[in-house]
Amino acid sequence: MSGATRLVDLRSDTLTRPTAAMRQAMAGAEVGDDVYGEDPTVASLEERVAGMLGHEAGLFTPSGSLANQLGLRLHVKAGEEVIADSLAHVLRAEMGAAAVFSGISSRSWVAERGLLDPAQPLAMMQPAAGAYQVSTRLVVVENTHNFGGGTVQPLERIAALREATRSQGVALHIDGARLWNAHVATGTGLAAYGQLADTVSVCLSKGLGAPVGSVLVGSQAHMDEARVWRKRFGGGMRQAGILAAAGHWALDHHVERLAQDHARAQQVAKAVADVAPGVVDPATVETNILILDVGAVGWSAAGFVTAAADRGLRIYATNAHAVRLVWHLDVDEADTAYAADVVTDLLAEAAHRS
Ligand SMILES: *Cc1c(COP(=O)(O)O)cnc(C)c1O
To answer: What's this protein's family per the entry (predicted)?
Structure first.
């Protein structure tokens, strides 16, 4: 960090810190023992999020990974399979949990930007494979798509997939860690997305700014079963209303403002496209995540990350040639302008070098 005068951290939207007002809401939360089902703030958050997503019941979890893994577990038995695109968080970023804890097998298809084409999972599915091949029980759709670059999955594509999977007895889980962003970017109702899936997980601790917490929603029977597995996995929490209060606060105050994050990601995408063609197409930047193919102008991702960090801009390498920048609650207009300057300078430097 030699000589950096500023620090702007765009590595992830998990980095948000609870605001002073959120901390006050947390301090005042009514609590009880949630393993006994006696925390009113957790219960009201679960009910609220289930209602928003058009489902019967919800379950508060300490992480999005746990919410996803409980969802997978409800639909897929040991020795059966889940399928998802090859960049999906459930396959790529949850440390093999489905295999380790639930004996779940998986396959994937390759989707550019993680964008769903229902024909791909439908071509792979084998729900009644019999005694020779693994049976498909679940398809996971990630919306928005993290490693795909904040891609919004079009509602009609999920609907088409839903219709075909349902008729074959295959379940659908939406990894909606950033479903809020899809909702704000498109104006599509959260319940319109939610109703297309058997279970949906959402994160409160990404751009919404809560320190901890996700919610899984589905039928009452599914949530009753997930509650048992949550305890088995060690995710039963006691006076968790302190955390649930942050979630309530986030839903009250931090959903609509996600539009600002989207506009800022777009602003930097355009600045980059002006100086370095081929690094990003601004038309593909739909929400708060910007992936730059710095390899297109001769940078390695690791080299670019280090050069940016030297100037006080922290970003994340998603592979050998691409970096990810994520906008969130703790990044303002001036931070965004600074990020644009650093990134465009470095890219221009590479262009002149080659
Ligand atoms: C962040 C994220 C999760 C959950 O992550 P945790 O760190 O376990 O809370 C799940 N899915 C996607 C797409 C994510 O980006």
So the answer is: Belongs to the threonine aldolase family.
Q: Which residues make Cβ contacts (< 8 Å) with residue 125, sequence separation at least 6?
A: 83, 136, 139, 165, 168, 170
Tell me, what amino acid is at 264? Answer: R
Ligand 1 center to residue 275 CA distance, Å?
32
Q: Which fold has domain 8-16+257-353?
A: Aspartate Aminotransferase, domain 1 (3.90.1150)
pLDDT 10s digits, 256-276: 999 999 999 999 999 999 999
pLDDT digits (tens, 9 = 90+) for 173-211: 999 999 999 999 999 999 999 999 999 999 999 999 999
pLDDT in tens, 138-177: 999 999 999 999 999 999 999 999 999 999 999 999 999 9
The whole-model pTM stands at 0.97
β partners of residue 109: 85
Phi-psi group of 72: left, alpha or beta (phi > 0 → left; psi -120 to 50 → alpha; rest → beta): alpha
Substitution candidate for ligand 1 out of 175, 212, 243, 287 with most atoms within 8 A of CB: 175
CATH class of the 31-253 domain in this structure: alpha beta
Task: Determine the distance separating the centroid of ligand 1 and the alpha carbon of 94, expressed in angstroms.
Answer: 8
Q: Which residues line ligand 1 (CB under 6 A)?
A: 63-65, 68, 89, 142, 146, 175, 177, 203, 206, 214
Q: What is the CA radius of gyration of the chain?
A: 21
Please state the domain extents for the chain: 8-16+257-353, 31-253
pLDDT tens for 40-72 read 999 999 999 999 999 999 999 999 999 999 999
